[in-house]
């Protein structure tokens, strides 16, 4: 398929692209070649190939939600820069209204 320069300008206008005359001259054969490749893909004999949503069989890959050992509260808080009432103490980032 061959695109004319007017068609390239029209496509550029639809895409809201500003193109110069030199760019149109360069783009016309390139876009024509791309459309030719797309036509070739459409010629593939795919009548025997069933439609699929994914090329591979999908399976659930999530693990069971099971309880596992973890660090104790003291071990967790040992690495904190500041602790207050058994919690991490961080600087206030939101001012109180009032």
Uncertain regions spanning at least 5 consecutive residues: none
Overall 3D shape: elongated
Count of DSSP H/I helices: 3
Q: Which CATH-level-2 architecture of the domain at 5-42?
A: Orthogonal Bundle
Radius of gyration: 31 Å
Profile the largest sheet.
2 strands, antiparallel
Question: What does it look like?
Answer:
The protein has 98 residues and is mostly helical. It has a domain of 38 residues: Orthogonal Bundle (Histone, subunit A). It contains three helices and two strands. It has a two-stranded antiparallel sheet. Strand 1 and strand 2 form a beta hairpin. The longest helix has 22 residues. The radius of gyration is 31 Å and the shape is elongated. The termini are far apart. The model has no long low-confidence stretch (mean pLDDT 87).
In short:
With 98 residues, the protein is mostly helical. The chain has helices at residues 5-14, 21-42, 73-78, and strands spanning 83-84, 87-88. It has a domain at 5-42: Orthogonal Bundle (Histone, subunit A).
How would the blueprint of this fold be written?
Layout: H1 5-14, H2 21-42, H3 73-78, E1 83-84, E2 87-88
Antiparallel strand pairs: 1-2
